[in-house]
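During the reporting period the student researcher (J.K.) took over the structure-prediction task from the postdoctoral fellow and processed the backlog of single-chain submissions. One of the processed entries is reproduced below for the supervisory committee.
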Amino acid sequence: MLHTVIKPNSYQDSINLMLLTNAVSALPGVIQGSIMMGTEANKDIFNNAGLYTEEVGGATPNDMVIVVETADATVVDKVMTEVDRFLNDLSVKKKSDGIKSVKNWNDAKEQLPDANVALFSIPGIYAADEIEKALDAGLHAFSFSDNVSLEDEVRLKTKAHEKGLLLMGPDCGTGIISGVPIAFTNVVKPGNISIVAASGTGIQEVTTIIDRLGGGVIHAIGTGGRDLSSAVKAITTKDAIIGLEQHDPTDVIVVISKPPAKEVRDDVMQLLQSLSKPVVAIFLGEKPENHEGNVYLAHTLEETAQIAVDLSQGNQVKENYLEEIHYSVEKPLEAGKTVKGLYSGGTLANEAGMLISEALELGGLIKTEGYILNANGFEIMDLGDDIYTQGKPHPMIDPEVRIRKIKEYSKDANTGVILLDVVLGYGSHPDMVNALLPTIKEAMAQAENDKRSLYFVATVCGTQGDPQNYDKSVSDLKEAGVLVETSNARAVRLALRLMGKEFVEVSKHTVPYEKEKLSLPTISAGVDALLNSTPSIINLGIESFTDSILAFGGKTVQFDWRPVAGGNRKLIKILNDLNRRAEIDESNEKVIGRMRDSQPFLMDVVPAKSVISELNGKVLLHAGPPIQFSEMTGPMKGSCIGAVLFEGWAATENEAIEQLESGAIQFIPCHHVNAVGPMGGITSANMPVVVVENKQDGTSAYCIMNEGIGKVLRFGAYSQEVIDRLTWMQNVLGPVLSKALQTIDGGLNINVIIAKAITMGDEFHQRNIAASLIFLKEITPAIIQLDIEDTLKKEVIEFLAKTDQFFLNIMMATSKSMVDYARKIQEGTVVTTMTRNGRNFGVRISGMGDEWFTAPVNTPDGLYFTGYSAADANPDIGDSAITETVGVGGMAMVAAPGVTRFVGAGGFEDALRVSNEMEEICIAHNPNFSIPTWDFNGSLLGIDIRKVVETGITPVINTGIAHKEAGVGQIGAGTVRAPLACFEKALIAYAQSLGIEVE
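J.K. obtained the following structure tokens:
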């Protein structure tokens, strides 16, 4: 039976998950299992493996998908324990390594301002977009990632060339920059040889032999396997060669290529012949008979290294570098025996296939289903081919596929020799030799029992400096009876000798180069700087790639990358287009500048109908985007009933409901008339509202006053107690505050109150006690001086003193005055409204004016009053999210550690985490409202829909929790996330308004 567990927003790179899959699959009771991210490609892999479930289909690329086949459901718990242990170990390692990590490009460049390279090991379908961002930021790109389209490769390499940068890759497995090993690479002594190679293990084989011969390498620039194709035209190869020609420490240039397009080979050859430095070149698949002009042409990777070392040491190049191998063979294998090659290195497999095919005249190489050679029973396999690595680690990391193949081939009576490579270095298995040896020993013993001849011939690609211990790897193989040669070419020659065939290498002389030489261009400043400095690398993807960089003096920062926009290709395309438009950032600065520069003053408290002309007749304002009575949830319906009773439009509850259901009463969103309302937001003509004026241009906003706690209208209560309080607020509280405010010249400066209260622990949505007390302090002297009855003064002052949340409604009107002032600039991607009506969450953005973008609202998570639970909770409701829109409330959780537990967070660390996370989706900080508990950073400013959609992080809103039934009221408090779909809709609509193709 299949069991599926989805871990939302839990991104890990593919290699970590492949290793985790191996660990989980080895658990007792697991028939098979797989752990991958929920990309469409990975879903295909799940399907092909018979592990696809309905839950898998619903996963996003940022979700970790765990599928286990087991007959015992309790095994799933053991699997999850192993998953948690593994991920925790990764987290502990990350902390112990002390590597700085970031989540976006801006932070990466801030952490590593002198960065000059971006290293990519992320899924190929996303790599092109990120590579382009790196190039646009002036960074060279090293793409370990593969599966980048040929079209994208050509486009990006052209862009890199035009910018004077190098795009190394895609599918670039290894490199060395200024002696710093990058990706899967070996530790090689520095020297005066530099390499340009369209081959990963080709670099590794040549550099390790150079090292063992006493030479050294300063640069090894990978280009990706397609660079010398007719489509790419060797863009990176040529730029790297030109750079190395003008790099003083490089005395010898080596070029390694997989079989190139003829016309491209000729172009590269002409360039090489135009250099002043000696060149060694190997075009795999060719068997050169002579050297040509300035270029020494090698047949094998070993010969390439041998010639390079001689040139680097000033020695004469030999006519023939063929040396005797270490093993003699008294009696070759009997007729009918064949060689099987099981390679982890693709280039080593190519070399083996080429040499065997040449020697035995097998008709050349093939490239199909992982085979390099498959003729007359001779099989050479590249086990790093995609067909073997889908959903599995590369064979340099994981021995499983080779173990399986060794068992298969060793049982074949026709198999005489099994050829193996063991590739050491950073990124590779910590002890591949001893991972393979038990299977090798078992196969050799079985062959001996069967009285069959079976030889294992191996080469170890590595150096004394590699972390796996080169000497021990060689000796362990030899002790087990494996025949070990010092290069891949020698190992192939030994295999051929065992077959009774001696390898012959022709002697080569130098012939003149007949074609015209080129006038070389000047090295670009970017390439010059790269080749003459220690690299500073932003690492996107496999975190272990930072190990070699740090160990050899490079600088690095870990970019904890995950697919933007949840991997949605349509949204990624839109984001890329929008992010390239500098004018959007300019517009956003203008919008948030208005929010930041707002000057809100509390001017008055007046009947709503006196400032909102639409409140004529039977009209009610409500919270959120437009909604009709029949669609409203319980609390809002209860508030409507209470408002009808308060206005005297009905004498009883039933009469009120009848009018509401009949359509006799009109509904308007508060936001449509410069107003906001808490929870249900119901506002009627005679309810008193605070008037906040933004003195920058006179923009005014309105909000009903806070009723206190208990049974209150905003939570849907409508008992006589509620109506009586509303009547008192209409007849006493409102008029008294109005008179008091008229005595304060110019009104009450709200910015000052906010600035003071935020330093005292308020975040202005769930906690307003400091601001409410400051307001009380400011207004009390004015009240006391009024010529009214003392009893009224006492009532008002006592009510304000007991109502800790009184300032919330003032803050709501303040926030509304700020965003309405900013909304007059109808440009950009800044969120200017967030609100909810119990059914839908609605947002507006600066560039789309009054248009609403809605999605079903979420239900809050939090703490409940005694006797209530989540089953009683109403979906989120109210206009109070206007506070988060201007960067306070849940966005400023860190300001109010005293309230974090009440809203469901765990304490200060959680509050800090939330505010840091919210910072990722905002444009700036507001210096007017400095937060001491956040190193005196200002509150956040300017939620950007691009950042929300890109990161998948939605605003956190602090909120009260209403009972879903009318009349019950508040049952708890907590936090709620805005639904992502609102922001996605807004992004698409905005893009369309700019004429961007969105399909």
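The committee noted the following: The longest strand covers residues 922-931.
J.K. will present the remaining backlog at the next meeting.
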